User: What shape does this take?
Amino acid sequence: MLLPTSTVGRKLMMAVTGQFMILYVIAHVLGNYTIFAGAINAYAEGLRHWPYTIILWSSRTLLLISVFLHTWYGIILKLENRKAKPETYALTRYRSASLAGRTMVWSGLLIALFLIFHLLHFTFQVIEPGIAATAHPDALGRPDVLTMVVGSFQRAGIAALYVVGVLGLGLHLYHGIESSIQTEGLNNDRTLPVVVRTGMAISVVLFLMYAAIPVSILMGILK
Assistant: This one.
C-alpha cells in the first residue's frame, strides 16, 4: 500500500480515515439501540452468522487500520507543525482556536484509551467475566448481551467512564468533521457556517445517543 509522504497527502489520509470512523460510529450506535427494543441479543446473534459476520469483521479490521493510520499521521503532522511554526504563531493560533480544536490531541488520546477499554470490556469480555455474554447464554441459547450491558452500566463507575469516553468522541468529531471537509477542498466561505453547524449537530447527537444507554440503565429506565 502506498502511504502519503507529503503534508497534504497525510491530511487527506486523516480526513478519509476519520470519515470512515464516523460512519462506523453511526452504524455502531444504531445497532446498539436495539437494546431499547429488547432485541440486542437477537441483533448480536445475527452478527455471528453469514454474511453478517464477514461484514462485521471486515468493518472492524478497516476500523483498526483507520485508527492506526489516523493516529500515526496525526502525531506526524503535530510534530511537523511544532517544528515548522514559531512559538508566537502557535500562541496566536491557540487563542483563536475553538476548545474542540485545541484539545484534538487529548480527545484523540482519550478515544484511543476508551476504545481499548471498550474492546476488552464488551468485545473480548475480560474485564467483567462474571457477566460475560458468551459465557452466560439467554433462554434461547444466544449470548446474553442484554444482561451483560445492563449489569455493567448499573455500576456508576462504569457508566461514568463510558459517558466521559463518548464526550471525548463528541469533542473530537466536532472539529474533525469541519477539518476533514476543508482538507478535501469541499469547504469555502459560503459553506463554512453550514459545515460547522452540521459538525456540531452530528457530534452532539452521537454523544447523546451513546450516553443515553449507560445513563438510562443507571437511572433504572432501561432494565
